[in-house]
Q: What sequence folds into this?
């Protein structure tokens, strides 16, 4: 009987260890924190052409740009608005062109 109880406890312990690990299926609700490279204010946004002007500098949006709201939850590029304060990271795309790869919305607008 002790072996059965110890076996059940060990199985339960093993299951709880695996349950805390993050998975890709919850990416839209998990918070993401990091140190952005740059900050600024959106002055112009053209999602059709994939262009973004932040503090008088024109940037291209990466094809796989990730956008996070001010609470740290992932959202879409549709949440971006002119006048918002943002933090962002730049990365080179496949063609070697620098583009905005991650944007954090800092303002609540």
A:
């Amino acid at each position: 009987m002790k072996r059965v109880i110890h076996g059940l406890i060990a199985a339960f312990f093993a299951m709880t260890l695996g349950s805390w690990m993050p998975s890709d299926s919850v990416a839209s609700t998990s918070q993401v924190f990091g140190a952005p490279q740059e900050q600024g204010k959106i002055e112009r946004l053209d999602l059709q052409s994939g262009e973004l002007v932040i503090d008088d500098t024109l940037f291209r949006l990466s094809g796989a740009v990730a956008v996070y709201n001010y609470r740290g939850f992932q959202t879409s590029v549709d949440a971006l608005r002119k006048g918002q304060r943002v933090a962002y990271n730049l990365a080179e795309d496949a063609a070697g062109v620098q583009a905005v790869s991650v944007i954090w919305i800092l303002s609540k607008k």
